């Protein structure tokens, strides 16, 4: 059994620590917390005594956090945010939070700008977004909605397609210009940005090459990326050529940050789907969110799959 009472310091000291780290000042933290400067200093000293480590170098006019304070502060901020969200869900049952899970790349590049528009609309509601490429996390019972890649068959979940996959090589316009009039990727003079396939449905350079019969010589440099999202990030930074879905990066292409190389595109059987649990009652807030997305241009006219 976990004995939190014996293993944890007074929990309000974490609130004081987070506030002091954010302001870099006992005085400014005291103003926000509506207590005296001495009370803040006492609470920090109490936490230092409990931990047995120094959290701040007290060098006037500013406090300088130690490595221990920075490490603890990062984790405490996340923990406090989680507690705050959990309490909001319990304390405001009339306005439940819509919990959305999305694959990382589509969440970063396609979903988040649209979430901002939704948050500013008349139909706005509270939502919580989680990014992950782990299907176990995406299809967790905790989620009201999930945006996932696949063929649309997800046991226990209904789904409607929001993006059809069309994979093409992408790079900065500067790199793309090197391929003007050439069909050889080697002429781009930039490495291929490769990533691990996390499921059989994923398309990488080797699958793209095989299905389109485009040669990728062994002599062509390759840079391994920790994730698909990182490969796009490196492409945006001009560090190589990545595979990317045209619908997913339409904004980056329109802004001139990415350009399509003169190579064939591959449209497989997969795509990005908006899914929701079959067995769960859908709240009004979740239905508002779904309606907002059905008003967007949905690939393959699958908006009729959305619930009424």
What does this structure look like?
This protein has three domains: 4-91, Winged helix-like DNA-binding domain superfamily/Winged helix DNA-binding domain (Arc Repressor Mutant, subunit A), CATH 1.10.10.10; 98-163 and 270-305, Periplasmic binding protein-like II (D-Maltodextrin-Binding Protein, domain 2, 3-Layer(aba) Sandwich); 167-260, D-Maltodextrin-Binding Protein, domain 2, CATH 3.40.190. The model is unreliable at 297-304 (pLDDT under 50). The protein is globular. 40% of the residues lie in helices and 18% in strands. The two termini are 46 Å apart. By secondary structure, it is of the alpha/beta class. The longest helix is centred in the first third of the chain and has 25 residues, at 67-91. Strands 4-3-5-12-6 form a five-stranded mixed sheet. Strands 10-7-11 form a three-stranded antiparallel sheet. It has helices at 4-7, 12-23, 26-33, 37-51, 67-91, 104-119, 135-138, 173-177, 205-212, 228-236, 250-254, 284-294, and strands at residues 56-59, 62-65, 98-102, 127-131, 145-150, 157-164, 167-171, 192-194, 222-224, 242-245, 259-260, 271-277. The protein is built from twelve helices and twelve strands.
């Amino acid at each position: 059994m976990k004995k939190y009472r014996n293993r944890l310091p007074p929990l309000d000291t974490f609130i004081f620590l987070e506030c002091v780290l954010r302001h870099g000042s006992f005085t400014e933290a005291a103003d926000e917390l509506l207590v005296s400067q001495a009370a803040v200093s006492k609470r920090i000293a109490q936490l230092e005594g409990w931990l047995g480590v120094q959290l701040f170098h007290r060098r006037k006019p500013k406090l300088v956090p130690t490595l221990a304070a920075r490490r603890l502060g990062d984790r405490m901020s996340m923990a406090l945010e989680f507690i705050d969200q959990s309490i909001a869900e319990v304390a405001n049952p009339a306005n439940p939070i819509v919990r959305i899970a999305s694959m990382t790349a589509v969440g970063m590049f396609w979903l988040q700008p649209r979430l901002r528009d939704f948050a500013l609309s008349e139909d706005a509601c509270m939502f919580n977004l989680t990014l992950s490429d782990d299907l176990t996390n995406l299809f967790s019972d905790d989620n009201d909605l999930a945006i996932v890649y696949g063929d649309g068959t997800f046991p226990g979940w209904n789904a409607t397609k929001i993006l059809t996959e069309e994979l093409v090589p992408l790079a900065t316009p500067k790199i793309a210009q090197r391929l003007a009039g050439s069909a050889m990727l080697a002429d781009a003079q930039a490495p291929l940005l490769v990533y691990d396939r996390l499921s059989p449905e994923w398309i990488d350079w080797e699958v793209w090459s095989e299905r389109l019969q485009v040669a990728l010589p062994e002599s062509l440099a390759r840079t391994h990326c920790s994730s698909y999202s990182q490969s796009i990030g490196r492409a945006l930074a001009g560090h190589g050529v990545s595979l990317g879905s045209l619908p997913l990066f339409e904004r980056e292409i329109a802004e001139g940050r990415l350009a399509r190389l003169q190579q064939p595109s591959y449209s497989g059987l997969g795509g990005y789907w908006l899914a929701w649990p079959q067995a769960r009652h859908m709240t009004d807030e979740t239905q508002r969110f779904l309606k907002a997305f059905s008003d967007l241009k949905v690939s393959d006219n699958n908006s009729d799959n959305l619930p009424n």
